[in-house]
Amino acid sequence: MNLSMEAIIWEHNRLRLLDQTKLPRSIEYIECNHYQTVAEAIKKLAVRGAPAIGAAAAYGLVVGAGQIEAADRQTFVAKLADIARELGDTRPTAVNLRWALDRMMMRLAAAPEQDVQELRRILLDEAHAIYQEDIQSNRQMGEFGQALLPDGARVLTHCNAGALATAGYGTALGVIRAAHEKGKQIHVFADETRPLLQGARLTAWEMLQAGIPVTLITDNMAGYLMAKQQVDCVIVGADRITANGDVANKIGTYGVAVLAKHHNIPFYVAAPLSTIDLRLSSGDEIPIEERDPREVTHHGGQAMAPEGVQVWNPAFDVTPHQLVTAIITEQGVIYPPYLENLAKVCGNNK
Ligand SMILES: CSC[C@@H](O)[C@@H](O)C(=O)COP(=O)(O)O
């Protein structure tokens, strides 16, 4: 990916976030001199995708640490905990957000340093580590996942689980990138992903940038495409995976999984271990974000529905584990029974 198109940039001690609401029309970065700007960027989906919002929030905490007036360690940690709470409340579904903030606060708690300047440096190091490890995980996931894609595979994906949704490389799109880099002929079908069109605006754009053949379809075309035997497998990302293997991901993913099952097409989920939440036993417990009805009624500022109509706008849905063929992680490909096998893989890492 072109360096100037990274979702998150920390350079010269300042944070810049690519404003993904503007893509693909223009490439604009948001300067984040205050943690409140980071929180706003996460809420409005300028930065989005589970691992990316985790990394952005970690850097947001670093920015917030810089805003805290000179203080003793105890006051500094207490104020930072408030900032972490505020950042953590921006979006409820992707567990990576909480995971990254908890990791930052735990690192702080474990640091014996009393000097606040030193603590700020430790926080920055930890944010860098979260960022770098995410790229590394995506590459490992890509390596494991690409083995599942035969040469010539036609792969359907939903939403955007690419470099834009992570620190770099991507989860579902990372698997596709890795197969492409191995010289396999891969053809991507990108669901446009209503209502905010992450598939059309971001996945199609990312694939074109990478030189990977891509065909854009509207969400309601996926079933017919499968019926015409044009899809060999589905790969999507995840916002949260529970202990039993249920998967929360962008609204519409569940429908794609049901279609894949009906047509006997493998349905893969690619996600780092930071997306797996063993504290929740099933998808019923995942908080699902509901967003502004205007995202459904309006497009490009234009009303597409009668004023006053009732709207339901959940941003995510839950795909039951029975529909998931395998989960691709940086530790390898995990197959059912998920309750047992996720615990085994995460047990060593959490
Ligand atoms: C690697 S990103 C995985 C998921 O976060 C992605 O598929 C998704 O649903 C993103 O939703 P978004 O609302 O754009 O943040």
Structural key phrases:
Four Helix Bundle (Hemerythrin (Met), subunit A); globular; alpha/beta; 350 residues; 41% helix; 2 domains; binds 5-S-methyl-1-O-phosphono-5-thio-D-ribulose; Initiation_fac_2B_a/b/d; Methylthioribose-1-phosphate isomerase; 11 helices; Rossmann fold; seven-stranded mixed β-sheet
Describe the structure.
The chain is an alpha/beta fold and 350 residues long. It folds into two domains: 3-138, Four Helix Bundle (Hemerythrin (Met), subunit A); 140-347, Translation initiation factor eif-2b, domain 2 (Rossmann fold, 3-Layer(aba) Sandwich), CATH 3.40.50.10470. It is 41% helix and 17% strand. The protein has a seven-stranded mixed β-sheet, with helices on both faces. Helix 4 packs across helix 5. The longest helix has 31 residues, at 116-146. It is globular and about 65 Å long. The model has no long low-confidence stretch (mean pLDDT 96). 5-S-methyl-1-O-phosphono-5-thio-D-ribulose (MRU) binds at residues 45, 48-51, 94, 159, 161, 165-166, 171, 198, 237-239, 249-250, 315. The site of 5-S-methyl-1-O-phosphono-5-thio-D-ribulose has 18 residues, from helix 2 and strand 9.
User: How many structural domains?
Assistant: 2
What is the rounded Rg? 20 Å
Structural class comes to alpha/beta
Cofactors, ions and other ligands in the entry: 5-S-methyl-1-O-phosphono-5-thio-D-ribulose
Question: Helix proportion of residues, in percent?
Answer: 40-55%
Number of strands: 16
Span of the ends, CA to CA: 31 Å
Strand content: 15-25%
Which fold name fills CATH's third level, the topology of the largest domain? Rossmann fold
For the record, what is the CATH homologous superfamily label of the largest domain? Translation initiation factor eif-2b, domain 2
CATH architecture of the largest domain: 3-Layer(aba) Sandwich
